[in-house]
Design goal:
The chain has eleven helices and ten strands. With 385 residues, it is α+β, with helices and mostly antiparallel strands. The chain is globular.
Length: 385
């Protein structure tokens, strides 16, 4: 595998870095305090106009068609400045990919241009429920066939961008008599559909500018053509797309970890104690060396998983390894960086406090670290069974 970036990949990484530094970084603290607002929405629109909301979508439907490696690079750069913006971009890209890979021609033509252009500020992925988190096959939301419509009833939790999403990809049980995970279908539900309602934004520990809401369906009537893929066979869609989403979240974690380390590295060079720069103390040097080595290992795991996906190879276990390692090590990187700042790291005036809150969820959403270990172990043992 050639680890060098193509000209297009490097261009996308550079563009994401430039935008992040110029537009996201100056507002990151303010958006964290105000939970987003107009500035956040403006940045989402700008990202769409720059091509970052359809990085792996065909140009035929308004996408950039840059591939998964470029997607990973872009999310990392955005996350170095603002994790809330990065997660919104990651989930929106994932939703667009689901529509491109599973949707019919009409569905692609109807929704993908709106997502890629920013006409829809975001798109949402509705899978998790109160009793179906790590075990999404246990979902209870139902879609009952009624003539040439389906009627949705149930609710989804922790839905990223629900407040401003233009379209929701929703999983629901369509065959209540089928074995667990076998009678689930996938639907496209437009914002504003009667019976669809959005709950209040959750008050989160971190990534506050990104809205996270409950989405409720109360006798929500949708046309039969809203079904995406085959009826009763939607769960495999979720399983496949979650693997791709893990590359996005691993990349996001990497960006946060690198931002924390970069800030602490500059700090210990400038800060003096006992008559010398903190950077002269070997213990702190080794702490930095270990954390940056881990971040580089995470980057390589992510690049490998992204490359495998881009080549059409099986990439699920590789994505789980990358997400597991990058998110866990990014958490360690943020805590080490905070430790290097000492008491200042605990103060809101300095970015380490925000970065440490932002990174914590990366080892939970898009599949917890424990679930990633289950997936990896299952793959390792499969050949012996």
């Amino acid at each position: 595998m050639d680890l060098s970036l193509s000209e297009e990949q490097q261009m996308i990484a550079d563009a994401a870095r430039s935008f992040a530094r110029a537009e996201l970084a100056p507002l990151a603290d303010e958006m964290d305090r105000s939970s987003g607002g107009p500035a956040f929405m403006k940045n989402l629109k700008s990202l769409a106009e720059l091509g970052f909301m359809g990085l792996n979508v065909s140009t035929e439907f308004g996408g950039t068609e840059a591939g998964t490696v470029a997607f990973s690079l872009a999310i990392t750069e955005l996350a170095r400045a603002c994790a809330s913006t990065a997660v919104t971009a990651s989930v929106t890209n994932m939703a667009a990919e689901v529509i491109q890979s599973v949707g019919n021609r009409q569905q692609k033509e109807r929704y993908l241009p709106k997502i890629c252009s920013g006409e829809y500020a975001a798109a949402s992925f509705c899978l998790t429920e109160a009793t179906a988190g790590s075990d999404p096959a246990a979902m209870r939301t139902e879609a009952r066939k009624d003539g040439d419509h389906y009627i949705l009833n149930g609710s989804k939790l922790f839905i990223t961008s629900a407040e401003y999403a233009g379209v929701f990809i929703v999983w629901a049980v369509t065959d209540t008599q089928a074995a667990k995970g076998k009678g689930i279908s996938c639907f496209l539900v437009e914002a504003g559909t009667p019976g669809l309602s959005i709950g209040r934004a959750e008050e989160k520990m971190g990534q506050k500018a990104s809205a996270t809401n409950e989405v409720r369906f109360d006798d929500c009537r949708i046309p039969a053509e809203a079904l995406m893929g085959e009826e009763h066979k939607g769960f495999r869609i979720a399983a496949g797309e979650l693997a791709g989403g893990r590359i996005g979240i691993g990349s996001l974690a990497l960006g946060i970890g690198l931002a924390a380390l970069d800030y602490s590295r500059q700090y210990i060079v400038e800060r003096k104690q006992f008559g010398q720069s903190l950077a002269d103390f070997q213990g702190l040097q080794w702490m930095l060396a270990d954390r940056y080595t881990e971040m580089e290992a995470g980057r390589l795991l992510l690049m490998s998983a992204a490359w495998q996906k881009e080549q059409g190879l099986p990439f699920g276990p590789a994505a789980s390894m990358a997400k597991l390692f990058a998110s866990e090590k990014a958490n360690e990187a943020c805590y080490s960086a905070l430790q290097l700042l000492g008491g200042y790291g605990y103060i809101k005036e300095f970015p380490l406090e925000r970065l440490t809150r932002d990174v914590r969820i990366t080892s939970i959403y898009e599949g917890t670290s424990e679930i990633q270990r289950v997936i990896i172990a299952r793959d390792l043992l499969r050949e012996f069974k």
